[in-house]
Amino acid sequence: MDSNLHSPKRQLIELQIAHADLNALVDIAVHAMPVDEIRLRRLKKRRLQLRDQIARLELSLDHPEPA
Question: Do you know which Pfam families this protein is assigned to (predicted)?
Fold first, then answer.
């Protein structure tokens, strides 16, 4: 059971949830008045980092099919 808590698929799901949460925060920050540009830039940078982590994890999970 403990091995499932640290499995790559579980990590992928957690990263996807964190990315979705950041999407929501970015949307809120964009529509806030006044817009806090520094906060918005930090949120977008973190969101991009998460997207990169997700892509790397997805690549490691996809096993190429034999020819």
Answer: DUF465 (PF04325)
Asked if the structure places residue 34 within a domain, the reply is yes
pTM over 0.90: no
| Residues of the domain holding 26 | 12-59
* pLDDT tens by residue, the chain, 67 residues: 456 778 999 999 999 999 999 999 999 988 988 989 999 999 999 999 999 999 999 998 887 666 5
How many distinct structural domains can be found in the chain? 1
